[in-house]
Structure formats: structure tokens, C-alpha cells
Design goal:
The structure holds two protein chains of two kinds. By secondary structure, chain A is mostly helical. Chain A has one domain: Helix Hairpins (Orthogonal Bundle). The radius of gyration of chain A is 21 Å and the shape is elongated. Chain B starts with 6 loop residues before the first helix and ends with a helix. The chains are: A mainly alpha, B mainly alpha. At the A-B interface, helix 2, helix 3, helix 4 and helix 5 of A face helix 5 and helix 6 of B.
Chain lengths: 126, 495
């Protein structure tokens, strides 16, 4: 068991990071900490992808010295997926931060539970 | 004729383009443009439906002519076309019936942005329906999440912002899990396209040592999408989200967005994993149990709700439970019932969410039950349409809800005896609870309230889309065999 984890240490680290991020996003009350959690969670997935795409001793599949065997190169798709994932993660973070600013301006706190209580006492009910 | 195979891609590209264009138009022009272009999309998708029925098989559109294991694909069959068509019709009806509220709820300078978001959402919905690639699915899933959040926060109240934040958090958890599941499957199979992945999974599943790992990956993916679509116990974000949004957003979010997630999940099971392998996994039984719990708990919470929008939202949670129960039952009958209910619920729920604000409007702008007393007399049209929708939700014959309950019953009979008893009981209890809260609401609505005599009259702009939704509802109820045949033809092309 431990042996397997040591061999696949990158994957194991990735899943641990994912777990940390996931629980932070779920259980933290502070919105900024939630966002940090979300980014850790996404980084976990990216590490998983990147470690999966990398094979030691092989190179990116750009033929410069005439070597054509596939065994000399790595599969570039995981790296591409990581890039796409990063773009998605950045845009989601941006929109969440803007929402956080909006909530902070209105309620002057970042604690989600407090905001929830405050919003219930509002008079804007229809 | 073969030119029609380009149409699915056109629907996506045109929607993306329209999103940008609406950003540049003024509010009213953006709305009119959206209505015109949604109608064009409906024509395009109808052509696709006709083409797939005519040729009798699904077609694959290869992007950039890169063949299967490398390129990206779009795939269209009868099932996808039927779903896309329903989605677009509902979208158009929601825009039509809700634009007056959009004008009052949203700052005038931002109305064009709202339609821009709706168009981007249409692009994401279409892409999720057509796509044949799991990672493309993930990207458009995130686009759908962002646009859903956008159409929520355009109504700038504190509560909508809070609802949007909670909605986003749940959705981000879901997307994270979905992505992890997809990456794990990619790790094991080496494919992201669904058909090659299915072949690889079938090979892997032959080895009993690999099966638990596969189950884990599929399980993670399932949890992700069920959080996003609001399966019990992840449905607590629903009432705030649907209750405070502008009516068009509420209708679209409850009836289309959650269904797109479910369809993606279903597609993953059916096409990327392969239905034989999926049926060997215990996930199905868990979905069945959670679906049944959702049906009962959602209904009980709907009974306890103190405002009509929250009630309808919790009833959504119950209906999502029905759909997952269908998937959990397995067999062609179960899937048919689940997909039939996707259509039935989408039509009915959008109708309910588009009528409740009209009833509230003649009740001093309040959605609480005690203020709604007599609202059915004050706004006759909205009252009638709400009644029809409610009857369908309860499962009165002639309406779609009844047919889908029959389908679930049939599927239950086909499965094992324990499941049959469970499902039949759940159907009975849930129908009774549905009847309890909807009939209570109807009685409240039609109890004469002497104090107020505001009356509202609607122009065709409201009644026509509502009539379309009702007609769809009655069609599903009376001619359910047509739709069931379409779904089963679609399923036979699906795998």
C-alpha cells in the first residue's frame, strides 16, 4: 500500500491537495479562504494531469533532430488540458472575487454565515 | 441535404456570436435579436431532428477533419435533437413571457448584457447536448455555470448576490469533482472522446481488479454532476437561487440548466462508460435510493415552505429525484422514463416559474401564501396557467406529469421486486405530497379576498408563450407514445 503511494507520489500528493481544497471550499466560512481552497483544489487536479503527462527522459513532441519514434516523446494533450483548466479556473476565480467584493460592500463582512443572517433581516423582501 | 450535418455546430457558433453581438446592441434591440435568432435555432434543430429521423441513424461531425482518436467531435441523434429542440422552445418562451420583468428588475443599461448572457448560456446548453468529448463537456459545463451565475446576479439585490455565491460554491465543488473524474478516466483509458473511451473501458472492466478503480472514477464524476443538478442531499441551494432570480432566469435555471447536467451525466454513462459496464457498478442503486429520498424530502420541504417560489423550487428538488430514480432503475424503460421526465419537468417547471411572479404582482409584490389569497381571481390568465402546471406536477391525466409517472411505473415493473415495491411506494407517497401542497396553493389562490380588486390583463406577449408551454405539456400527456418512441429510437442510436 505505502509502496504504491511512494511510487505514485505525485498522484497521491495531487489527491491530498484536492481533498484539502475541497474541504476548504466546503467548510470555511470566510469567502476569501473558500476561494483559496478552490484554487488549491484545481491545482491538485492540474498536478494530477501534469504528472500523468510527464515521463522521465522523454521530450515534448517537436521533431528537431530527426528522431521519429514515439517512445522518444511524451503525449502533449495533458499539458494542453492543464492550460485549458487554468484558464477556466482563473475566470471562475475572477467572477467569485467580484461577487465577494459586492457582498463585502453591502454587508461589510466576509463571513458567509453572518452575511446569511444579515440578509434575512433585510427589508428588500418582495 | 448532407449540409444539415453542419447545423449542430452552427447552433453553438451562432449562439456564441450572438452573445458578443448582444453586448454591442441596446437593450430592446438585444431582446428582439435574441427572439429572432432563437427562432432560427429552432428551425435549424428541427432540420437536424428531421434529418436523423429520415436517415434513421445518428451522425458525427468531425471538427477540422481530424479523425476519431485525435479530433473533437459533435454527435447528433434523435435524442439530442429532441432535447435541444425542447430546450430552445422553452428558452424562447421564457424570454417572451419574462421580458417585462427583465425590464423592471434590471438596470436599463444592463439589459443587453442579460440577453448576452442568455445567448452564451444557449451556446453552452447546445454544446453540452451535442458534444461527444468529455473535456469539451467540462469546458462548457463551466461556461454554463458562469452564465447561470450571471443571470442570477443581474438582479442586484443582496439576496441574489448571496444566492449566487452559494450557487457558485456548490457548482464549483461539482465542477472540481467532475474534472477529477474525467481526468481519472483519461488516465486509465487514454481517451477523452466518448466512443474510444467506451471501447477502452470495456477492455479494462474485464479485469476484476480494475473495476473498483473505474467505479471510483465514475462515482466521483457522478457526485460532481449530481451536486450541480441538485440531487438530494445537495439541493439546499435551490430555493434561494430560484426564489430570488428574475422570472426568466428562474425558469431557465430550473428547467434547462439542471437538465443539461443530467443529460451530460446520462451521456457519460451511456456512451463513455458503456451501459453494460455501468450496470455492473453499485452507483445505480445509490442513485435510486438518493432519488427516492429526494422525492420525499423535497416534497416535505415544499409543504413547509412559506412562499410560493420556494415551494416550487423544493418541488424541483423532488422532480430531480424522479429523474435520478429513473436512471437508478436501469434498463431501457428506466432511461426512457427518466428522459421523458426531463422533458415533462422542463416544460412544467418553466410554466410555474413564469406564472408565480404574475400572481405576486397583483398581490402587492409578495410571494407569501397569505398575500396570494384570491390572486387567481385578480389575474385570471396567470391563475389558469399556474393551475394547469400544478395539475401536471401532481400527475392528473391529460398532462405530462401523469404520463411520466406511468413510464416510471412501467420501468419499475420491469425491474427486480424490491426495487419495484420501493419505486411504487415512492411514486404513491410523492404524488400524494405533491397533491397536498399544490392543491393547498390552488385553494388559497381561488379563495375570494374582498379587500383587493386589482385586476391584470395581459397582452398576447404573455399568453402565447404560456399557451405553447401548455400545449407541449398536454401533447406529452396525450400523445406520450410519440415522444416515448422518439426517445427509444434515440436511445437505440445512442450507444
Amino acid at each position: 500500500m505505502i509502496e504504491h503511494l511512494l511510487i505514485n507520489n505525485e498522484e497521491a500528493a495531487a489527491i491530498i491537495l484536492f481533498g484539502i481544497g475541497f474541504t476548504m471550499l466546503l467548510f470555511q466560512r470566510n469567502l476569501i479562504k473558500k476561494l483559496i481552497g478552490m484554487n488549491i483544489m484545481d491545482s491538485g487536479v492540474f498536478l494530477f494531469l501534469a504528472s500523468m503527462g510527464y515521463i522521465e527522459g522523454r521530450k515534448a513532441p517537436i521533431i528537431v533532430d530527426g528522431i521519429q519514434e514515439t517512445s522518444a516523446y511524451i503525449n502533449p494533450i495533458p499539458a494542453g488540458l492543464v492550460l485549458t483548466g487554468i484558464v477556466v479556473s482563473v475566470s471562475v476565480t475572477a467572477i467569485m472575487l467580484s461577487l465577494t467584493i459586492r457582498l463585502y460592500k453591502r454587508y461589510h463582512t466576509l463571513d458567509l454565515d453572518v452575511i446569511y443572517v444579515l440578509s434575512r433581516h433585510q427589508t428588500e423582501d418582495r | 441535404m448532407d449540409f444539415i450535418t453542419n447545423f449542430p455546430l452552427f447552433t453553438i457558433v451562432l449562439s456564441l456570436f450572438s452573445g458578443v453581438l448582444c453586448y454591442m446592441l441596446k437593450g430592446k434591440a438585444a431582446r428582439n435579436y435574441t427572439i429572432v435568432y432563437e427562432s432560427i435555432l429552432i428551425v435549424l434543430v428541427s432540420c437536424v431532428l428531421w434529418y436523423t429521423l429520415h436517415t434513421g441513424k445518428a451522425f458525427t461531425y468531425v471538427m477540422g477533419e481530424f479523425p476519431a482518436p485525435w479530433g473533437n467531435e459533435i454527435r447528433a441523434g434523435v435524442l439530442e435533437a429532441v432535447l435541444a429542440l425542447t430546450f430552445l422552445v422553452i428558452m424562447l418562451c421564457a424570454v417572451f413571457a419574462g421580458y417585462r420583468f427583465v425590464d423592471t428588475d434590471i438596470d436599463e443599461s444592463k439589459v443587453n448584457l442579460y440577453y448576452s448572457l442568455l445567448n452564451l448560456m444557449t451556446a453552452a446548453l447546445m454544446a453540452l447536448v451535442w458534444t461527444n468529448d468529455l473535456f469539451t463537456g467540462y469546458v462548457f459545463l463551466e461556461i454554463l455555470t458562469l452564465t447561470s451565475c450571471g443571470v442570477l446576479i443581474v438582479r442586484e439585490l443582496g439576496r441574489t448576490t448571496l444566492a449566487a455565491v452559494r450557487y457558485m460554491i456548490m457548482n464549483l465543488l461539482g465542477s472540481g469533482l467532475f474534472l477529477l473524474g474525467v481526468v481519472m478516466l483519461y488516465n486509465m483509458t487514454g481517451h477523452l472522446l466518448m466512443m474510444p473511451m467506451q471501447a477502452a473501458v470495456a477492455e479494462l472492466a474485464a479485469d476484476p481488479a480494475v473495476m473498483p478503480v473505474l467505479t471510483m472514477a465514475v462515482g466521483i464524476l457522478t457526485i460532481g454532476l449530481s451536486i450541480k443538478s441538485g440531487l438530494f442531499p445537495f439541493h439546499y441551494w435551490m430555493p434561494d437561487t430560484y426564489g430570488w432570480a428574475t422570472p426568466t432566469s428562474a425558469a431557465v435555471l430550473s428547467s434547462l440548466v439542471s437538465k443539461a447536467y443530467i443529460f451530460l451525466l446520462f451521456k457519460t454513462y451511456y456512451r463513455a462508460i458503456g451501459i453494460e459496464v455501468f450496470e455492473r457498478m453499485p452507483i445505480r442503486n445509490i442513485l435510486l435510493v438518493l432519488g427516492i429520498c429526494g422525492m420525499v424530502v423535497g416534497s416535505v420541504q415544499a409543504i413547509n415552505a412559506n412562499n410560493i417560489n420556494r415551494m416550487v423550487a423544493f418541488s424541483s428538488a423532488a422532480q430531480i429525484g424522479y429523474i435520478y430514480m429513473g436512471i437508478g432503475l436501469g434498463s431501457v424503460y428506466g432511461y426512457t422514463a427518466a428522459l421523458f421526465h426531463v422533458l415533462a419537468h422542463a416544460l412544467t417547471k418553466s410554466q410555474l416559474f413564469l406564472t408565480t411572479p404574475r400572481l405576486a404582482e397583483v398581490s402587492g409584490g409578495n410571494l407569501r401564501f397569505r398575500d396570494l389569497q384570491g390572486s387567481g381571481h385578480r389575474n385570471r390568465d396567470a391563475g389558469v396557467f399556474f393551475t394547469l402546471g400544478a395539475l401536471s406536477m401532481i400527475g392528473i391525466p391529460v398532462f405530462a406529469g401523469f404520463s411520466s409517472k406511468i413510464q416510471f411505473g412501467l420501468a419499475a415493473v420491469e425491474s427486480s421486486s424490491i426495487k419495484m415495491i420501493l419505486v411504487m411506494l415512492a411514486l404513491a407517497v410523492s404524488s400524494m405530497l405533491n397533491a397536498l401542497y399544490f392543491i393547498r396553493t390552488l385553494i388559497r389562490m381561488y379563495t375570494e379576498d374582498p379587500d383587493t380588486n386589482v385586476r391584470a390583463h395581459h397582452r398576447a406577449g404573455y399568453n402565447v408563450p404560456m399557451l405553447v408551454l401548455t400545449a407541449g405539456n398536454v401533447f406529452l400527456g396525450l400523445f406520450s407514445w410519440v415522444v416515448v418512441n422518439l426517445i427509444q429510437t434515440g436511445l437505440s442510436m445512442f450507444g
